[in-house]
Design brief:
17 helices; about 375 residues; alpha+beta
Length: about 375
């Protein structure tokens, strides 16, 4: 959704509620010189009647995905993700604890829970309200913290992500907060920390690699990884990491992951891929091993174990054009012909195309064999 459309919604909503747009969408609008742009995520903060405002958004076509008794709601509409929260003050029982909240009705109090000044700008549809010098920090391209890293050490990872995403610089306050806050990283659950790595994985390659390099150099990864030295960090710039996805971090850090991390499926598979013995680097061996796996797993192997990087890169490109359906037989032949068309090749139909293997394992081998035959024609 365009920023101008969100602005129109806000202007109308403010006739009935004390509501503001806050955070990254406002920050990015300022950075873009107040020109219109397509927004993927935005945050509203409201003084009261969260339910009424959510119902209003629903009437505009938004779909509610989460409504929490803690005064927050999540909605989506045409590619836009929206978070809505009641204004609040946050308290922490101990460093790294999840916050307790007290609802308030003024943004002067709410702003004190914001993570960085560049994210602490409130917009009422007409003007930007800046209590903490966020506009100056955007002008100076500086990431300056608002709230303590000790209370919430995940702010360290967010600050690193913003700095590299926006191509800003760290403030003196950032490093002061960092030195104290990093002492409490182990108070935070591994799930929350992994989510920060996943959020950093969806930004551009250059920004992502720089962000993870900063994390390693600032020594804030030891909670889940060991042995990440300066030479390893330098090598990351040469890595192939594919398109943005929330699991891309694992390509950089898989060999160093500590036991017991609560990893998700694709992340686990990448760690398992590194345990397999080295394979022959030809199309048939590669596809026989990787036809069941996604690009993430192939890239993890490519970066850490492959000798012939070129063949793996070509394989990743070509295999997207090949897809064989084994049964019924007419569909198998048809999918073979369609794959040849996509590859722009003409090949004789091999005898094994018509085999009828028994058992799922043998069927899988046949599928991989047929696909390898096609893929090899372009590599």
């Amino acid at each position: 959704m365009r920023f101008s459309e969100i602005r129109e919604i806000l202007v109308y909503a403010r006739k009935f509620w004390d509501v503001y747009l806050v955070g990254g969408a406002v920050r990015d609008w300022v950075i873009r010189g107040f020109s219109d742009f397509n927004v993927k995520d935005c945050d509203f903060v409201i003084a009261d009647d969260l339910g009424g405002f959510v119902s209003f958004l629903e009437s505009r076509g938004f779909k509610v995905s989460k409504f929490s008794r803690f005064g927050t709601a999540e909605l989506s509409f045409k590619g836009l993700n929206v978070d809505v929260a009641l204004m609040r003050r946050e308290f922490y029982d101990f460093p790294g604890a999840l916050p307790k909240v007290e609802f308030v009705k003024d943004i002067k109090t709410d702003v004190l829970r914001r993570d960085f000044t560049v994210n602490s700008l409130y917009f009422d549809g007409e003007k930007i309200i800046d209590f903490l010098g966020g506009l100056d920090d955007i002008s100076m391209k500086t990431i300056r913290p608002v709230a303590s890293f000790s209370d919430d050490p995940t702010r360290i990872f967010r600050g690193i992500r913003y700095k590299n995403l926006l191509n800003f610089q760290y403030s003196k306050e950032f490093f002061k907060f960092l030195e104290e806050g990093k002492n409490y990283i182990l108070n935070v659950s591994a799930n929350r920390l992994l989510n920060e790595l996943r959020n950093t994985s969806v930004i551009s390659k250059g920004a992502m690699v720089s962000a993870f390099s900063d994390m390693a150099n600032f020594d804030v990864l030891s909670w889940g990884f060991e042995g990440v030295d300066s030479e390893i960090v330098k090598s990351w710039k040469r890595f192939y990491v594919g398109k943005p996805s929330k699991y891309r971090w694992v390509i950089l850090l898989a060999p160093f992951s500590r036991e017991g991390l609560p990893l998700e499926g694709a992340e686990k598979r990448c760690l398992e891929i590194l345990k397999i013995p080295k394979i022959e680097e030809n199309v048939y061996s590669i596809h026989s091993k990787f036809y069941k796996f996604g690009d993430l797993e192939v890239l993890t192997y490519l970066n850490w174990k492959a000798e012939n990087v070129r063949i793996f890169l070509k394989y990743l490109k070509v295999r997207k054009l090949v897809k064989i359906k084994l049964y019924p037989m007419e569909e198998r032949v048809k999918s073979f012909e369609e794959s040849m068309d996509k590859l722009n090749v003409k090949l004789p139909k091999p005898e094994f195309l018509y085999e009828d293997p028994k058992g799922s394992g043998e069927k899988g081998k046949l599928k991989a064999k047929i696909e390898s035959y096609l893929i090899a024609s372009r590599i």
